[in-house]
Design a protein that fits this description.
By secondary structure, the protein is mostly helical. The chain has one domain. Helix content is 81%, strand content 0%. The protein contains seven helices and no strands.
Length: 174
């Protein structure tokens, strides 16, 4: 695998983990787009994939319960960063610590950008509430993951455009 392709896959999967953590991990394991290091090969085993599918279903349900939503978001943010780091380091086949830091930074940037923009979007767009925002987030994560696997270089363009848009919005607010 050439370096640009590996970087595209690594960044795309780490970025999509910010939207839906388990989905990119499941799809990457099912498609074999990345080769996990020996210590993480268990992530592509059938029992683990079934557990991840159940967790993904729970993730979709828990985000809609007000009392559970805050706790879910707090714990799940850390899980998404870890998943982003695992996918990043595995796709690039680099030292796990370096991959966890770099992949975690990419995932973290998009998580916190999304959290910062959510109240603004809901305030500016009439009747665009939490449920609709979550639906857009779910679709974004699914589409970005699929595009990363099918057309990896396009994920770099999308992540770059999203980053630019977030920075521009933040500058306009300040």
């Amino acid at each position: 695998m050439n370096l640009l392709l590996a970087i595209s896959i690594a960044c795309g999967l780490a970025g999509s983990a910010a939207f839906r953590g388990f989905f990119p991990l499941i799809l990457a394991s099912l498609t074999g787009i990345i080769d996990y290091p020996p210590a993480l090969e268990w992530l592509s085993s059938t029992p683990v994939l079934l557990i991840l599918l159940v967790l993904m279903g729970g993730e979709f349900l828990l985000q809609h319960f007000p009392g559970v939503s805050f706790f879910h978001s707090s714990v799940y943010t850390a899980v998404k960063v870890i998943i982003g780091g695992i996918l990043f380091s595995s796709a690039l086949r680099i030292a796990p610590l370096i991959g966890m830091i770099l992949g975690g930074l990419i995932t973290g940037f998009f998580i916190f950008s999304r959290l910062a923009l959510q109240p603004l979007v809901e305030e500016e767009v009439y009747q665009f509430h939490h449920l609709e925002y979550d639906t857009v987030e779910n679709l974004a994560g699914i589409v970005l993951t699929i595009l990363t696997i099918v057309i990896p270089w396009l994920s770099l363009i999308i992540l770059g455009a999203l980053s630019y848009g977030v920075i521009r919005i933040e500058q306009n607010i300040s």
